[in-house]
Structure formats: C-alpha cells, structure tokens
From TrEMBL:
Organism: Riccia sorocarpa
Keyword Repeat attributed: yes
Pfam families xref list: PPR_2 (PF13041)
Chain positions of PPR repeats: 9-43, 44-78, 79-113, 114-148
Record keywords, A-Z: Repeat
Top-level taxon in the UniProt lineage: Eukaryota
Name used for this protein in its record: Pentatricopeptide repeat-containing protein
Length: 151
C-alpha cells in the first residue's frame, strides 16, 4: 500500500489488527498498534476498543487492563461501545465480578447502560449458573426503560 503511494489510515490499521487477533496473532496486532502510536497515525476509540475486546476474548486480562489505562492516559476516552465490548468479552468467561466492575465503571463514566450492557451481565450470570440474579438484572433492564432483544 505504502509502495503505491497510499498511506494507511486508522481504519486500515484497525482492520489489520482485528484480523491479526482473529487469526491468533495478537502479538503482531500489539506490535502494529505500537507502530501506529510511533508513526503518523493516531489511535482512536475504535482501534483501542478492537484491541481491548480481542485481548479480553483470548484471556489476556492484564494486557487489556494496561491498554485501557494507556488509552485513558493518552486522552482517548472510552465510550459505551468500548465498555460494552469489554463487558461482552468478560461475560463469555462467566466472570461475574469482572462484569459488574465494568458495569460500575460504565456508570462512573456517566453512561447509561443499554440493552447490550444488560445482555452481557445476564450472560455472565447465566454462565455462572446464577439464574435468579440474571432475572434481577433483566428486571433492572426493564425498570431502566430498555427494551429486551433476542440475545
């Protein structure tokens, strides 16, 4: 691409990072992210969210936590999509405590949980076989004015 006079942008890099992660090459994706930071391409919330989701998905909790801290330090504020992506990846592992930590952080950042937030919490609780609490979260979803969807 560069050889043909075209400079890759953040969308191109994010697509590459996501593809690398999906093929088990997360270290290459992290190196690409570092190269972006050192080059002329600024990481945006979508790029960070992509990496956070993929790192959590493959069980790299510490790396994801460090990346979230770096994201905030660099002035790139996470949005609700970022938090929901983290929450979804945590929920798949059944980490109820981790899921509720992210849920609290969502509210601390001033975001209103949406149906995706609640779906992830319900999934984490169901994976942990806590159906009663999952029902309580479902009731909270309704109380907060969210419309349930088909997960």
């Amino acid at each position: 691409m560069k050889n043909e006079g075209h400079a890759p942008d953040v969308v191109t890099y994010t697509t590459l990072m996501d593809s690398l992660c999906k093929t088990g090459r997360d270290e290459d994706a992290l190196q690409l992210m570092e190269a972006m930071e050192g080059g002329d391409c600024t990481l945006d919330v979508v790029a960070y969210t992509c990496m956070l989701y993929n790192l959590r998905k493959i069980g790299k909790k510490e790396e994801a936590s460090k990346l979230l801290t770096t994201m905030k330090q660099k002035g790139c504020a996470p949005d609700l999509v970022t938090f929901n992506a983290l929450l979804a990846s945590i929920a798949k592992s059944g980490d109820v405590n981790g899921a509720f930590r992210v849920y609290t952080e969502i509210q601390d950042f001033g975001f209103k949980p949406d149906v995706y937030t609640y779906n992830a919490l319900i999934e984490a609780l169901c994976r942990a076989e806590d159906v009663e609490e999952a029902f309580n979260v479902f009731q909270k979803l309704l109380d907060d004015g969210c419309s349930p969807d088909l997960m």
